[in-house]
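User: Run a structure prediction on this.
Assistant: Running it now.
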Amino acid sequence: MSKPGSKLNRITVVKGRRGYFSPLQADHYHNFFEIFYLSSGKCRFLLKDNVYQLSKGDLVFIAPGELHHAVYSSGSSCEMVNVLFKREYLALPLPWELRSFMGSVPVLYQEDFHALLGRMLSESAKLDEYSQPFLQCYLTETLLLLMRHSVMNEEDPELLNSRDADILQATRYIYKNFRSPLTLREVSDVASLSPTYFSRKFKQTTGMGFKEYLNHVRLKHAQVALLTTDNTITDIALEYGFNDSNYFKDLFKKVYGKSPREYRKQPD
């Protein structure tokens, strides 16, 4: 799992190809924004508590700290472009909140969008000292294009695979009740599936095990609490669903690379 303190010191644009032949992508989150644009193929994408089916022309905008990853089906092959940036890298300050979302670039504007991505990919090769300023301008233009054409304003894109609605219901239930001592049986009942089948389908759909997903949700909220409250580490562990503070400390260090106490003093 990527750590929230992962370094990013410039706008980064990469083009890639992934599919059934790729290693299973770990769930991760980071302290910068990411645009994931699918230029060909199909894949599933987990973002926070939603699982979506993406097709060519769909994109995911991921805000810092949001759990996400793609899941590729057997026999599938996808091409994508990833844009990584921090808000301060934009050429102009944007007055709008940049939140996570999923949407589709309208066919009418895909040519303009592809042209922008192409220019960004070219400049990302560091042609000269003007490459980063150009990238800043192109990135700002990209975000403005998405806002103008309402891609960033879609409330609930119809990208959900209905066959996985039971798993989506489970992930949402976990997000709402993570402070409680949730069990596999309880959550599988919410999805109306047997525990055994639920475990297998949850892993297949999200790319994560049930316990792994639950722990991540709890850790993410605990991480925020460490930086924004004066509560003791034990109190934070108990508040966010860990009934053993030592287990919380060990798991936190495994994921973040630092103990909760060390992270509180030096989060980056």
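Residues 1-5, 153-161 have pLDDT under 50 and may be disordered.
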